[in-house]
User: What shape does this take?
Amino acid sequence: MGQGNPEMGGAERCTFCAEPPVIRLSEPDRHLCAAHLICEIEERAARTIRERELVRPHDRIAVAFSGGKDSTALLLILSRLLLSWDDVSLVAITVDEGIAGYRDDTIRAAEEVTKKLGIEHICVSFTDLVGDDLDTLLVGRETNACSVCGILRRKALTVAAHDAGATKIATGHNLDDEAQSVLMNTLRGDLPRLVRTSDADSSDCFIPRIKPLADVAEKEIAAYLFVQDLFPFLPECPYTRYALRREVRSMLSALEQQHPGTMRNLIKSKRAIEKQVDRSTISEPLRRCRQCGDPCSGELCQVCSLRKSLGK
Amino acid sequence: MKIFFPDSTTKITAGEPVSIGWILQQRDINPSEVIVSRNGKLVPEDAVASGDDEIRIIRIAHGG
Ligand SMILES: [Zn+2]
Ligand SMILES: [Zn+2]
Assistant: This one.
């Protein structure tokens, strides 16, 4: 949709049935009703899982579940796909970073959803992990919020998933997140990270990480939840205003609006580079952290060097 | 019609039919960053709002 006269009187009905449309998608151009949207999103996630072989029989999948939209959609979709898999189980893990005025509501939302879906639910907190909540840890270093939080959240999740006996960790990263990461890593000149982060092979821990929603756009996820009365009306994390991702996000969504397919093309480019790159030449050989023994690329793992800089 | 914007402001306008896309364009809102409901039901950007319609523009928070 460009500038100028907006289109008036769009489709009165879904491209596939007589119901009213709730969303318009491009490539191919189509209008979908609520039922056909739900069907399309669940099928697309199922296809991603099948094509990339993200789930195997006897897997125990730990779902990183914040209670926000992406992880709510992920949990819902996996709980529905579960029925068609051979002996696969789910456990939802919520990490309480300790962000005042934000996290309490999302945790309450998370508890309601897991109860409704009948899924085992574990909560862990930054206080358990490092003795302080994020707000306290960040005083005077707010601009590093997202990287500090990311490192600790990853660790908390890995520990909880390990304790729960998980064989996979599923995260709600969507198409927009993936495209943003490609652009951010490129802008930062971080080639090792650019080629490291796809699919199940991106495990920098012992439990492989999977992203079943990597081919679903953020807006599609929001719509998928809204039509099922599951859209979480929650505030944005207060720390995102410090993040580069925020700028990249609005830039990319503007580009996508003007040039549909931009995000998918960006991911396509990254995958093409990935195939060409000999990973051993750009990433450091895997070593062990001398503090905790976790796999890492330097002397200390990210968590231990963060702990050191925080004086923890 | 009555329009609820993501910044919690509201606007009441005469019932001239306009598209949802046009309403978003007037406020420089990128359609991929919001979902829009008309009388409580989700609608695409090419849907038309008119008369006494209640339009709610909901910002999609990042993350989660
Ligand atoms: Zn339909
Ligand atoms: Zn360590």
About this structure: The CA atoms of residues 35 and 58 of chain B lie 5 Å apart. Strands of chain B lie at 2-4, 10-12, 18-19, 34-38, 41-42, 48-49, 54-59. The domain at 2-59 of chain B is CATH 3.10.20.30 (Ubiquitin-like (UB roll)). The radius of gyration of chain B is 11 Å.
